[in-house]
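Side project, low priority. Logging it here so it doesn't get lost.
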Amino acid sequence: MMDPFNSTILDDNLKELQERLGHSPDIVIRRIKSITTQVEVAAVYIEGLIEKLRVNEFVEHAMSFDKLSEEHPVVTSAEDIFLYMKEVARGIGEEQTLEDWDVLFEALFSGDTILWVNGIREAIRGNTSGGEVRTVSDATTQVAIRGSKEGFTESIGTNISLVRRKIKSPNLWVESMKIGDVTQTNVSIMYIHGIVNDNTLQELRTKLQSIDIDGILESGYIEQFLEDTPFSPFPTLYNTERPDSVAGNLLEGRVAIFVDGTPFVLIAPTTFFMFLHAVEDYYQRYDITTLIRLLRFICLVISLFGPALFIAILNFHQEMIPTALLINFASQREGVPFPAFIEAMLMEFTFEIIREAGIRMPSPIGQTVSIIGGLVLGQAAVQAGIVSPAMVIVVSLTGISSFATPAFNMALSIRILRFIIMFIAAFMGLYGITIFTFIMVAHMCSLKSLGFPYMSPFGPFIAENQKDSILRVPLKYMRTRPRLVSQKNNTRLKVNDGKPGSGK
């Protein structure tokens, strides 16, 4: 609903502006009187959101008619001053007249400077945004040995430019919108026109436009609104703070979602196997990448089933343990007062406390607390007879294996499921673990990410896409994009025989 300016008198408008903003001290109003015409002009901006040098240049250019009028009159009235300032604003790349309070506040909070002329109902905005922002630095949560070291910042404009530097194509399109009735957060979607799936893009647009909330503070808000199954323990959107990771996914036909104020960019649609891939997998030789990926999948199985299998075998299936090892376990547990399940829960709960404390504390202290806390508590628990040495080994191996998962949100999901599987193993043994595994896999096969099968390329099975799932073939044989992600312009590598690559 329109909320237009009610007066042409500058003092009235400035008074209403200050009242609407609660007389906030960071609202700066510079009043200037024209030497030649005696018409008063006001420049309004918010301290901290602007670049002071740009503001000074903008105001100086806007008032330059006074110097020009000393010899030859340029302007003689308030209307002439207003038209002259519009030309100046157009010269610096921003020419928009404001007649509405809502649009004016949006401009102010975006870092623009507002020029008001006494006697004119309209105002002019000039792009002077700036202020203190974090510079481009290393990615902190997705560390890579080989490849680009730069990571996203909290500025959406900087983040989009980082991707544009990697994909220099006119088909790299960006669409912007504002979400949040109060915060008016800038949200942009980026995709490569001609490669992206139009159905996926339209579904994403519809879901974003349907978000009705007072504020968006981080991309995690958007992620929760875009999830088709919010009660599933598995994340169905991938997030990254690396520009090269976003560029790689855009080239496969996916869409990137940028949110102002956060360095984490969302990628959709997403598959389960994306959470076990690292960006440097494509910078290494295929044999090295394949071995590392196999190691990650093994670590995933250990972190998910390790304690549960130990509990189930120790309680229900002792015949599976070699006799000498079984006698060893029995002698270790002779003085332990708790069953294996309680023992494992105590150790896992302690390990989670140490891990959480290490994350929340300052980096140098946090690492020390994690290492010393684990060693001291583990050794003390064994000497006190609370847990057995074998259980300490199993829990430690499980915890270390969970760190091998590249995506932090997937590692969190595995940690939650591990406790559920341990509980089932304590009462039903391997039979219960098997049933739960079937249910979990069936659930994962039912998940979709913006209409895209979560377990692709295994469910449904797509032979062409097996070249980059668990294993990875040499790049020269990866001639096509994922078939279900991009259903047009599917060829990304051509064969040097004069014929376009068939991807087979």
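Brief comment: The CA atoms of residues 290 and 471 lie 5 Å apart.
Revisit when time allows.
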